[in-house]
Amino acid sequence: MILTAENLPKDLQGYTFNLVLMDLDNEVGECICHNADDSFTVFINTRWSSEAQRHCFEHALDHVRHHDWEKSNVQEIEYEAHRREK
Fold first, then answer.
1. Which of 41, 42, 53, 63 has its CA 20 to 30 A from that of 70?
2. What is the rounded CA–CA span in Å between residue 60 and residue 62?
3. Angle, nearest 10°, between helix axes 50-65 and 74-85?
4. What pLDDT, in 10s, does the model give residues 68-84?
5. How far is CA 40 from CA 26, 83, 86, in A?
6. Is the pLDDT of residue 5 over 70?
7. Strands (DSSP E) along 36-76, which ranges?
8. Strand bridging mode 2-3 / 17-22
9. pLDDT tens digit string along 24-73?
10. What is the spatial distance between Cα 25 and Cα 65, in angstroms, rounded to a whole number?
11. pLDDT single digits (tens) 6-25
12. 36-68 core/surface letters (b: 16 or more CB in 10 A; e: else)
């Protein structure tokens, strides 16, 4: 599924997202990749509930909002992202 401006928050309407639903490890809710064409692919775990999947997608969008793909320390990125969610 490719998300377009009609179904994205206004602050993310300049980006293109590819949404892939797939079985991931039970501990992984989502994974996001910044692609060479400047789009993003978000992988969402189909093993999780629809509510958890929605939360995971919002978490991925938050990473884009904060340009986390430009950072290198994954632990620090996740720490900051989860602090923002509180």
1. 53
2. 5
3. 110
4. 888 777 777 777 777 77
5. 22, 23, 25
6. no
7. 40-45
8. antiparallel
9. 999 999 999 999 999 999 999 999 999 999 999 999 999 999 888 887 77
10. 25
11. 778 888 888 889 999 999 99
12. eeeebbbbbbeebeeeebeebbebbbbbbeeeb
Half-sphere exposure of 55 (CA within 13 A, CB side): 11
What's the pLDDT score for residue 4?
Answer: 63
Which amino acid appears at position 85 of this protein? E
Domain edges within the chain? 2-85
Burial of residue 23, with CB atoms counted within 10 A of its CB: 0-12 exposed, 13-18 middle, 19 or more buried = exposed
Separation of alpha carbons 31 and 37, rounded Å: 18
